[in-house]
Amino acid sequence: MAAVEGAAAAVGAAVAAAAEPPARPRDGVALQGVGIGWRPEIAQVVAGTSGLGFCEVIAEAITPAAPPRGVAELRARGTAVVPHGVRLGLGDAEGVSSTRIAHLAACAEAVAAPLVSEHVAFVRAGGREAGHLLPVPRTREALDVLVSAVRRTRDALPVPLALEPIAALFDWPEDEYVEGDFLTELLDRTGALLLLDVANVYANARNRGQDPSAVLDRFPLDRVAYVHMAGGAVHDGLYHDTHVDPVPAEVFTLLDEVRERGAAPAVMLERDGRYPPAEALRAELAAIAATAQLATPDTPVPHSAHASPAVQTGEPESAGLPPGAHR
Amino acid sequence: MSGELAARQAALVAALVDGAADPAGMDSTRLSAARRALLRKRSGLAAREWPLVAAGMGAGWTPLAVEVLAGLPVADGLRDGWVIARVARERGLLTDGARRELGERERRYRFDGVRSPRPRLFHRLLGR
After folding, report:
1. ipTM of the complex model
2. Residue of chain B nearest A235, judged by CA positions
């Protein structure tokens, strides 16, 4: 199955490279305000925060037929929900599976998403899952693979697709492009939008010994769908985009610059673990709002005043044992 | 067409998770850092699925998790944590709560150390 798909993808890439059909027209997207990455562990905090412009959910953690209750409730409140894929593998040389593309599309429909997002990365090769987002070589060959995969994905999606460039601890010796130019050509050829992860721009610039402002100069900032903010830490002398630490001041400084360039209409906090107390999370959201000059999410009436019993006991959304249910 | 790219990607994944040699021309120091970051990330995901085992071990969780997961194919937090929990049990590192957490799952599911856990027949029949 993988071999057939790989061969088909290779043929597809060859055809696409040989006769470039025009990219689909850029679609208008209207994500606004401050958002947050929804996670079961912080479902209560998110439910108790008013004024969120949107939230993002990990697509692989969603069963389209039955999205998590907290997500459904946000949707019912009118908060936009954006499925964010982490295992599609748009950069996989072996090609993207139709099943995974279909799942992403089903997630979009299940939560009535205004758009979905994924990564400029590969996640599996040689029959092995990497379990992580890995950088593709910034070569013409990799660009062709990405373009083909993104077009196939966009064709199956009912909504626009935003692509996130990842934080990478290493580069490939065969790199032909700088990151901004690689991204720009990818978006030009596919019509996809940019999910600008400011923490990733900071991490990569720092680890490559580059000036983040100079890096941003080459980025396609004219088509940002939304922005990620996340925390990190230094290990082994390198800055790691961990998503389990507070957002450093330098990343806020970079967000301020992105705002000045008119590229921060919607900004969210991404946190994957070691969750701090609700007050600390909300303080980080407030700092994002202040920096990006967006409305500050706040607490509505005290949560206990109207919470249902199930919510008050703090039952995690994913109680019990769903083997393999997480990504 | 993508033959070279496929080979390079496969070489990188093998180097990061299988202990294979670093792909030609890549920075070994950076790849080592990436390997360690991957193991830390997997340790965190496993801790999420095994909160009592992880909390019971405190600061000892991450070093044990990294030791156990190195060279183990990437699965998911549940399976990775299960392997770690069994090693911890062998070494007498489980608290009472952790033993209960592991015991409950061993009782209800069959896990061969590799494939996704499957409910034991008795529990399937009872619809649990």
Report:
1. 0.86
2. B33
